[in-house]
Amino acid sequence: MESPQGRKRKQQARIHKPAYAKLFPVRSLTICLSFFVFVLFISSDRLPVHKGVSFRPVLRTSTLSILPAFLTGNGGARATSTSQYPPLVVEGRVLMPDHLMLIVSTKLTPPVDNLDCVYYDLVLEQAVLRPVLSVDEYHQFKSIVRCHLPPLNFSASVNLRGRQRGRLGSVVVERRDWLLRHNQSVVPSWDRVVYEAVLDWNAPIRNVAVFAKGLNLKPHREADARKFRCHFSLTDFDEHHRGLFVFTTRAISAAQETVRCLLPRGILNNPEKAKDIHVTVSRRGDDNGAGDAPLPSIAKVQNTISRQGKSGRGKYELCACTMLWNQAAFLREWIAYHSWLGIERWFIYDNNSDDELEEVIDELNLLDYNITRHAWPWVKTQEAGFSHCALRAKHECKWLGLFDVDEFFYFPHDRGQDIPGPNSLRALVMNYTDSPTYAEIRTACHSYGPSGLTSPPSQGVTVGYTCRLEAPERHKSIVRPELLHTTLLNAVHHFRLQDGYRYLDLPESKAVVNHYKYQAWDTFKAKFFRRVSTYVTNWQEDQNKGSKDRAPGLGTEAIEPPNWRLRFCEVWDTGLKDFVMANFADSASGFLPWERSLV
């Protein structure tokens, strides 16, 4: 019979048994099974992979963030039993300029009053809880959770927990749970990461378009695709460039932040297998040395692009795409006006808005405006966002306009001429849908100033701002998305086209874009927060002060210059105002549609 002392020693040995000793058999079995599953999964089309593909197994442990027992009370990747939240798995973390972004495998619905970010003290081995900043839908069934930046001496390996007691504070972390913190990946910099990847099925050679920061390619130029490779894996690629069981394929194009690569054969012929496969990019070395290591990545291959247009009716004739931040107050006017001109489908790329944008879009969709909001959290990536949008739109749209919420197409007309009617913009582009020559229509922009106003006009920008600069500034484009160059190279205002196609410059007598660029100061100063274009300097930075991308006479601080309300006023032009009041104002009240409640 075993003595009480012997039983006590065995019990203590079990208590102090290292965490890795318990986890090792499970990890070993998981890795072995994953290896065979992944090989069969990727290359199952009766064998190997597409030409240009290589296979390189790499051993690593998983970095999925399973919430430990001290957070959940049950040892799993779950919120507490009293929490309103489903099981939460953090798939990736990126340090952004002003917050920490977590990608969560579950779709969460705001509000998130009872969800906390959990920060781990590197010295004291304790956890501190802080409220979540915001939650956003991501890739339809996932979520983006934004947390405060970690305090000093705290790890960026932040997790989540549902709040039980309604208060914040510190939690002591058990040693076993603390060990798990060291195996969770964090992308340490938002400007060096592979952030999106999407399949392109309508290309002559099916491929994946990968979007990455940190390639440092020259703007507006095509790079040598032979220098790049894509790597596909079951697990994410962290700051140490590790991935579990990697297939490598060659790039077929590269420009700015977009690299297109071939697909492993199994994915090439079975698109459903592509979902949630991790991907990253690396640069090959020259003859004199090794290339760069793969970039850290949180990107998974997405197949969210519909391969069908309107049900039973083919593609939409005219769609529009924009990227915005906190423009909810101006969206109703922009959508209602351009829908009247004939735009049928809308792609809104939301760049971290925290206003009422979602509510406004929901209201507009109740009125059948056909708007899709796409969360695009990546900082200074407008060119890549438009490339991404063009890939989505080419399956649904014959023409795609890319312009901002403060830009309005307008058809000038003299007395005696026919006044443009409903769907006039759609009718214009339809004249060139079957053109063997033109794949882009460019329209000159007129920039409007504050027009003497010191606050936003109640009737909207088209009626309120009526004084502009005399000479046009730049242009905006409407493109045929299936005829864009394979690189998706663009300068925001226009795209590079496939060989054999060119753009058409519309004369100002036929059409212009009214750009309400320099609005009342309270509206305009928001531009100082951050510019969305990759290659345009933020106004807080002391660079390129003479550039057309900056407002003349402004410095680097959001301080209202003298006589701002009178600036940028050379020509009084009420053409669009008169047109809007004649076609949109209620005959009895004089109200415009965007002035009234939409519900």
TrEMBL record:
Look up the EC number in the record and give it: 2.4.1.-
A Gene Ontology MF term for this entry? glycosyltransferase activity
Tell me the protein's name.
Glycosyltransferase family 92 protein
* Stretches that traverse the bilayer: 20-42
Q: Name one GO cellular component term.
A: cytoplasm
A Pfam match:
Glyco_transf_92
Q: Where in the cell is it found?
A: Membrane
- Heme among keywords: no
Q: What class of enzyme is it?
A: transferase
Keyword Ribonucleoprotein in the entry? The reply is no
| Similarity annotation | Belongs to the glycosyltransferase 92 family.
Where is this chain primarily localised?
Answer: membrane
Topology versus the membrane:
Single-pass membrane protein
Which keywords describe this protein according to UniProt?
Answer: Glycosyltransferase, Membrane, Transferase, Transmembrane, Transmembrane helix
